[in-house]
Amino acid sequence: MSEVILEALGIEFTYPDGTRALKGVSLRIFKGKKIAILGPNGAGKTTLFLHFNGILRPDRGKIRFNGQDVSYKHASLLDLRKNVGLVFQDPDTQLFAGNVFQEISFGPLNLGLSKQEVWRRVEEAISATEIEGLKDKPTHFLSYGQKKRVALAAILAMQPRVLICDEPTAWLDSRQALRIVDLFQKINQQGVTIIFSTHDVDLAYSWADYIFIMKEGAVIGEGVPEEIFKDEALLKEAELNKPWLLDVAQFLKKKGYLAERAPLPKTKEELLRSLAGADIACSNNRLRAVP
Ligand SMILES: Nc1ncnc2c1ncn2[C@@H]1O[C@H](COP(=O)(O)OP(=O)(O)O)[C@@H](O)[C@H]1O
Ligand SMILES: [Mg+2]
């Protein structure tokens, strides 16, 4: 059985102005998975993430990392923040150092690592996020997309076991977004658990292993992408569209272009392969409705 790495148990949280942002959130994140959290603005995604790395402390309930309750004592918080890295949605919230190198080395320097180890990690993070050319630049001169990559590099240099990204592809152009997803894929293959919030249903459908849907401070649905996005009532309640791939695949099944029992395609390539298969089946007269 797979192992739970991060857990929220009955988290309730109200901001000082009286906004009840989380109303009893419980969820379990399994080690090594790719998790998407979907939900309309104001659902509580960011507030939950701030609990996951101990920036906010719940009014009720608890966070458990690697089987241990977070106690909010200094050592427990340090351990949590070393292992659970949070990349903020707005890089300007996160970036504070003068230049890119200082920004990325700050975290590892504070872990008490040797200079060589800090250098090694910084170089690795810079190379993973492909920002070699920016090393000596002041962070405030960077473009939004560049800042996003620096913010991600700063967290990667901490070598967290869980990487949390709050809307990592928001406001990026589609090429930049693809590069981020490619990078996530590489990081995940190294065993890092990835949690991200997004409004991009296509990304969540294609890429996540498991999805949580939040609304008004609560988790209103969870499951594997195929199940989540087949649940029309849930999608409506969460104000989510259906991923285009699923829409097209369901249409093709209804029309008989795809076999009813064929697995649902998760990528465009898979869909095209199934259609090529349908073509062949047609030439053998096995699929009646193929034109
Ligand atoms: N610092 C804050 N002070 C008061 N209310 C806040 C603060 N941050 C967020 N909220 C409120 O908490 C609720 C959840 O917000 P948030 O966690 O940011 O949701 P999401 O990330 O899903 O958009 C919203 O009603 C939001 O307005
Ligand atoms: Mg948010």
Helix content: 40-55%
Structural class by secondary-structure content: alpha/beta
Return Rg in Å: 21 Å
Strand order in space, largest sheet:
6-7-8-3-9-10
Please identify the oligomeric state.
Answer: single chain
Mean pLDDT across all amino acids: 91
Rough outline? globular
Distance between the termini: 46 Å
Question: How many β strands by DSSP?
Answer: 10
Q: CATH topology of the largest domain, what is it called?
A: Rossmann fold
CATH architecture of the largest domain: 3-Layer(aba) Sandwich
Helices, by number, come to 12
Q: Element order, helices and strands?
A: EEEHEEHEHHHHEHEHEEHHHH
CATH class value of the largest domain: Alpha Beta
Question: Which features does this protein show?
Answer:
single chain, 291 residues, alpha/beta, Rossmann fold, 6-stranded mixed β-sheet, 4-stranded antiparallel β-sheet, 12 helices, 10 strands, 41% helix, globular, binds adenosine-5'-diphosphate, binds magnesium ion
What features would you describe in this structure?
The protein has 291 residues and is α/β, with parallel strands linked by helices. The chain has 2 domains: 4-239, P-loop containing nucleotide triphosphate hydrolases (Rossmann fold, 3-Layer(aba) Sandwich); 243-291, no CATH class. It has helices at 45-52, 74-83, 91-94, 100-110, 115-128, 144-156, 174-189, 201-207, 225-228, 232-237, 244-254, 268-283, and strands at residues 4-14, 20-30, 34-38, 60-65, 68-69, 84-87, 162-166, 193-197, 210-215, 218-223. It has a 6-stranded mixed sheet with strand order 6-7-8-3-9-10, with helices on both faces. A 4-stranded antiparallel sheet has the order 2-1-4-5, covered by helices on one side. Helix 4 (100-110) crosses helix 5, helix 4 (100-110) packs parallel to helix 6 and helix 5 crosses helix 6. The protein binds adenosine-5'-diphosphate and magnesium ion. Adenosine-5'-diphosphate (ADP) binds at residues 15, 17, 19, 21, 39, 41-47.
